[in-house]
Amino acid sequence: MKRGTAFAIHQVSIMSRNPAKRQKVQGVTPAASDFESFAPDGDVVFIVNRDKRVRVHSVVMKGASPVFAAMLGPNFMEGQALATANANANAETDPFEIALPEEESSICFGWIRRALHSQSATMLWDPKCLELVKVWSIIDKYDMQQSMQLSIMFWSHKRLSAALTTQDLWLLALVCFQNKDSASFETITKRLLRRSEGAFFTSGSKTERLVNKNMQGRFWYKLAAKLQVVRTDAQNKVARLVYNEIPFILASHTCATETADYFDHLPHLMWNDGFQIFFLDIGAPASYLDEVLSALDSWVTRHGGRHGGLCDGCAGLTDLLRRQIRNSEPKIKGICLACFEKGDSTCSEHKD
Predict the structure, then answer these.
(1) Cα–Cα distance for residue pair 305/254, rounded to 1 Å
(2) Residue 110 CB burial class (10 angstroms; 0-12, 13-18, ≥19)
(3) Highest taxon of the source (predicted)?
(4) Interstrand relation of 52-56 and 275-276 (parallel, antiparallel or unpaired)
(5) d(CA 292, CA 268)
(6) Confidence (pTM)
(7) Euclidean distance between CA atoms 309 and 50, whole angstroms
(8) CATH number of the domain encompassing residue 154
(9) Containing domain of residue 240, as a range?
(10) 88-111 residue pLDDT tens
């Protein structure tokens, strides 16, 4: 048994030891919580954080979680008491109660149990990103990663279809990293690269304060560093085009196009809808690069050659400049989860 699993079993057993008991449950009314009615014949009721009753089948919980398999088994007090209660009482009307007073979230705990009892119930909940982090904390605590992987993946994909803040994207990145959801992780990190303003270290550290400090603290800074490297590489590629490659091509043109005209016009290319585009700023989103390249392409079409279409040389210059711009366009992709975990580009898809 893993050391972490053994510790979790010990902690849960201590928390539930005194309140664990067999107690008569009243009939479920229409106003009763869904967390009791989804398993009406369940033989266990968890009292979560003293405010939520979650009724389950012990056999389902033992199959989904090594922690509960041990706690509800013959070697722990709860399991022994449950076996005695099941032998001496009618489990349909008299479930065994176990108190869990220190859970991350009563609602998240209840939905995890509901999804375990019926996969279709996964579609009935639309958790927010911070709730998904709490869901994962509970899953990790009870070692239910395999049994809940598809539900977490479904909820993550559902969130991705909605409008998300930068903070939401950071939270989802953490969940998908832990759930080994490589496709969603790549999508999320691509959005962070294209949309995030400001230093990644700043936004990552702000998000870290919202979650349990014991949850992958190193993750935030490792991802922030990787995102910053990708964004800086893309900025450098465009900077070489703007300040080196285009001036060199213009200076080499046989019609003696003035490179000074280009540099005089550069400040005007750095504005979009009245806002200046500081595309080389450390906190500039990668979407700024698209705007700069689009402005460059428009300028080349109108002013790239002194004689326009009247001169074969100028027409060729325009084509050459436009090709150079297209070739310099950064291909902003999300981060490969396998490479991120390894710390390099040695996954089977990206290794040289």
Answers:
(1) 10
(2) buried
(3) Eukaryota
(4) unpaired
(5) 10
(6) 0.82
(7) 79
(8) 3.30.710.10
(9) 227-327
(10) 755 455 788 999 888 888 999 999
